[in-house]
Amino acid sequence: MDRPIRVLIAKPGLDGHDRGAKLIARSLRDAGMEVIYTGLRQTPEQIVAAAIQEDVDVVGMSILSGAHNHLLPKIVDMLKEQGADDVLIIAGGVIPEDDIPGLKEAGVDAVFTPGTSTKDTAEFVKNNVKRK
Amino acid sequence: MEKLIEKMLTGDKRSCARLITKVENDEDEARQIIKKIHKYTGNARVIGITGPPGAGKSTLTDKLVRLLLNEGKKVAIIAVDPTSPYSGGSILGDRIRMQDLALEANVFIRSLGTRGYLGGLSRSTKDVVKVLDAYGADYIFIETVGVGQSEVDIIKTADTILMVMVPGLGDDIQSIKAGIMEIGDIFAINKADLFGAERTATEINMMLDLGQNIERRPPVKLVCAREKQGINELLDELKGHIKYLEDTGKLRERRYRNTKVEILEMIEEHLRRIVIGYTDKDDKLDIRVNEILDKDKNIYQVIDEFLSVINK
After folding, report:
1. What does the pLDDT average to over B109-124?
2. A112 conformational bin, left if phi > 0, alpha if psi -120 to 50, beta if neither
């Protein structure tokens, strides 16, 4: 692929900590990607609207509030409804190991928990983008 | 692609977004798309928003667009942010200031990286404008990257230019320098609640009054975007300028000038590519550079050789 990968980094829900999201945004930028950063306190509707209009390859969501089981599957479903079923969906933040299988089943392609190196995340994105 | 265009013309956002991606990434597809949508373009009024980083361009755009939505208008926003010269990546963060707009049925927002272009826009911005024009936007706002003194590409793309300034960026000499201060059709002094706003307005007014053969003296408005102060008046000025362009035939004049420049730039780009295609083959460029450094050849001999590919 000779075009830059486009990634939306968003923070769904109500927690107000975005250092992790900014770190990921920055490291994907340094890996040569175009990162659309939409900031704090996004509703699923806002995230999906941005993903559609920006025509991104990847939606990455950082969530620390504990509402991941509720918000992430909802966003996956809404993207599918809009025909954006070829978007790679990744999540990061404070997400218990036990919840990860359920999220994957719901359509989240990968979950990166604290301690993941930013290089690994960028590599994963590069190797798994679904659209050519 | 036919199908995407068809759906985009009926106002489908996803098709519009996909077409923009194609136009941005693939020269051949861009060409096909622009050919097909050309007859649907020319209806939107294109407003360029420019000014230094952090002046409040995104926030001001957000507030202006909100007012246009209340009038039932369809609005598109192109927000350009810089691409890293090192990694080729970018952080496109203008949407942060436009959170609620994205949900409006009549708004389409797209962020673009400059991808190596230095004039404040990206190479494909003009083509993205065309797609959004055909999509049916009444107004297209182009927000440039935060500019310094000479990023004036926006005049080649927009009908009306709003220059957003803030207090505290230097003395009155800055305002009489050539470059971005010359291209504004309207000046907004944002963050007017900050100390020095009146003075900045006065300095810009004085600069504008020094202009002798100015067709229409740009108005200077004090606004405070975050507090929604002065936005109505600013929108009136924008509309006033658009009406002026229409009534005096200047709209056609500007678009004539811009199309001419666009043609010449496209030819330039095409020729550049032919020559680069030749110099890149068999390391010719590297070999010739060494020959110049070793005094085997001089620079003009080499240039003549390279240009001979288009002189044929």
Report:
1. 88
2. beta
Would you say residue B25 lies in a domain?
Answer: no
The string of pLDDT tens digits covering residues A52-61 is 999 999 999 9
Query: What is the ipTM, given to two decimal places?
Result: 0.91
- If pLDDT is split at 50, 70 and 90, which confidence band does B59 have? very high
Do residue B109 and residue B135 come from a single domain?
yes
Question: In the A/B pair of chains, how many CB contacts fall below 8 A?
Answer: 86
Q: Domains in chain B: how many in total?
A: 2
- Of B213, B248, B283, which marks where a domain is finished? B248
The model's pLDDT over A6-50, given as tens digits with 9 standing for 90+, comes to 999 999 988 888 898 999 999 999 999 999 999 889 999 999 999
Determine the Cα–Cα distance for residues B157 and B62; give it in Å rounded to an integer: 20
pLDDT for B173 equals 67
CB contact under 8 A, A53 and B103: no
Helices and strands, number each (H, E), in chain B? 11, 8
Identify the CA nearest to A21 among candidates A100, A92, A121.
A92
* pLDDT score of B212: 67
For residue B33, is it within any domain?
Answer: no
Chain B residues with beta carbon closer than 8 angstroms to that of A118: none
- Whether B66 and B127 map to the same domain: the answer is yes
B7 in a domain, yes or no?
no
Distance of CA B28 to the CA centre of its chain: 22
Domains in chain A with CATH codes: 6-123 (3.40.50.280)
Q: Do A54 and B111 touch (CB under 8 A)?
A: yes
Return the pLDDT at B189. 94
Is B89 in contact with A28 (Cβ distance < 8 A)? yes
Chain A hits for B82, Cβ within 8 Å: none
